[in-house]
Write a structure and sequence with these properties.
Length: about 250
């Protein structure tokens, strides 16, 4: 089985007599992973964590990405995220499987399918230069079934731009704040909202920003409560965490 919902349906079928325990056991015994030689594809990731395995594309060949994606697709996985994949690799992969590719974020979604748009996540950036990282976060969250609102170029150099969207921010279940330079956006947002803030430092900035280290340290030392920090340029990690927060809040609301 490839996700928790399918397993739950199988167990319900056993309970109401439409499936035998033996049939259920046979289905569950299907290998939880497949060894492709260069990768052991984890088919039970969605059972444990609620989302399918994510492919990190930067250090893989296009052929390896394609092989893993095909193996997952054959087991019914959909909306498979492939991060840090350049356009050249994407062209090769798209020739072998259905692929939705977003070049700015360098992110692909193999076997794209229906996905809900639950709750409310806001992804905001300090500047336009932070958009590639922000898009990685936003697209990740959307692929995982969340409603995402983008607020781009609302940094502290012109605070009125952020304040004009207070109503959107205050309705969010989670805010992803993406900023380089001095990384002040996360602290400002954290002081305005009553939901968790996921801060993403970016490598945008001049020499003394040290490739994002300045923003990272500023965000780690934020005086705003409820602000967590992911690694430099880690839009995927932020989108994934925001999805977990948003959907947990949704379960509470339900």
């Amino acid at each position: 089985m490839d996700n928790k919902h399918e397993i739950l349906e199988l167990l319900r079928a056993v309970a109401d007599g439409t499936a035998t325990p033996e049939d259920a056991l046979l289905e569950l015994k299907r290998s939880p992973f497949e060894d492709l030689g260069y990768a052991k594809v984890d088919f039970h990731r969605s059972v444990r964590q609620g989302a399918a395995e994510v492919l990190y594309g930067a250090s893989k060949t296009a052929e390896q990405i394609l092989g893993i994606a095909r193996a997952m697709g054959e087991r019914g996985c959909r909306n498979i995220l492939i991060t840090r994949m350049d356009a050249e690799k994407a062209a090769i992969v798209s020739a072998g499987v259905e692929l939705e590719y977003h070049p700015e974020a360098r992110l692909g979604i193999a076997f794209p399918g229906d996905r809900p748009a639950l709750g409310s996540i806001v992804v905001c950036t300090g500047g336009t230069s932070d958009m590639p990282v922000a898009e990685e976060a936003a697209l990740t969250a959307e692929a995982m079934g969340n409603h995402v609102t983008r607020l781009y170029d609302v940094g502290v150099a012109g605070l009125h731009r952020l304040l004009s969207s207070l109503d959107v921010l205050m309705r969010a279940r989670c805010v992803v704040a993406v900023a380089g330079m001095e990384g002040a956006l996360a602290s400002v947002v954290g002081g305005l909202v009553d939901c968790p803030v996921v801060a993403v430092p970016t490598s945008v900035g001049y020499g003394a920003s040290f490739g994002g280290l300045s923003a990272l340290l500023a965000m780690l030392n934020s005086c705003a409560s409820g602000c967590s920090v992911v690694n430099i340029d880690n839009g995927f990690g932020a989108g994934y965490l925001a999805s977990m927060i948003n959907q947990m809040e949704g379960l509470k609301a339900d």
